[in-house]
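Quick log. Single chain, no ligands specified.
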Amino acid sequence: MRPLKHFILASLFGLLSACNHSPVFDRKVWLDNPEMTDTHNPRARMVQDVISHHLKKGMSRTAVIALLGPPYDATKSGYKQPITFLLYPVGWSTIDPNFLLIEFTNKDLVSGYGIKQG
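-> predicted structure:
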């Protein structure tokens, strides 16, 4: 009886663990979750890996978009579309959306990046 109980608990833990997305950047999962309306966006778990291992100062805007897909369209919220930075929704804080903000030089090269609350 005891081995069956351990098997059931281990199986349940494995099933629940499989439902959570990895903190390692997965381009397909990133591209499949572009909306900022999702309070449990899997991008939130991956954004640190994107910052630490994938974005580099001096990258071109084209390379960033090839990696992360199309950015958030700020004009949907009534804002003028920025040309000096790109925004990628990555989840929510208590009441505001969080974005990965990528800033560019006047030559369209990455000059900095970080998380911005919305």
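The chain has one domain: 22-117.
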